[in-house]
Amino acid sequence: MNWKPVVRKSIVITGASKGIGRAVADPLAEQGWSVIGVARSSPRHFPGVFIETDLADQNQTYALAKDLAARGDVFGIVNNVGLVRRETIDAVDFEVFTGVMDLNVRPALQLTQALLPNMQSGSIRTHH
Domain extents for the chain? Predict the structure, then answer.
């Protein structure tokens, strides 16, 4: 019997429970990606693995980044988690603004930095 190695290439989508994040998951799965969704709560249906994590929490994001990097098969990321507060410029609360900016930027940086070495290597692990 001649066995072919199974190539697994995974992609992470943050903010994957709804909106753009959820919408992009189906086409990526159809293109052959093993999709890993991340958000605070799981959607009813998802075309892959879903990890419930609060990316507003720096420690949870760090633990997730470490776990995803250890997989060795994550070759892409869709940094989609984000928050919008509708305020007029004269009413912006700086504490709220800081929280919004933190969620909109920090998880993307933490996760991308953790996954970058594997993405740059271009080496896909094969499983028999």
Answer: 8-123
Q: Give the integer Cα–Cα distance in Å for 78 and 119.
A: 13
| 41, 17 contact by CB (below 8 A) | yes
Buried (b) or exposed (e) across 47-63, using 16+ Cβ within 10 A?
bbebeebebbeeeebee
- Quote the percentage of the chain above a pLDDT of 70: 89
Residue-wise pLDDT tens digits, 81-107: 999 888 899 999 999 999 999 999 999
Query: How is domain 8-123 classified at the CATH fold level?
Result: Rossmann fold (3.40.50)
Residues 11-43 as b or e (16 or more Cβ within 10 Å = b): bbbbbbbeeebbebbeebeeeebbbbbbbeeee
Distances (CA, A) of 90 to 83, 94, 100: 19, 11, 17
Residues 6+ apart with CB under 8 A from 6: 126, 127, 128
The span from the CA of 43 to the CA of 51, in Å, is 11
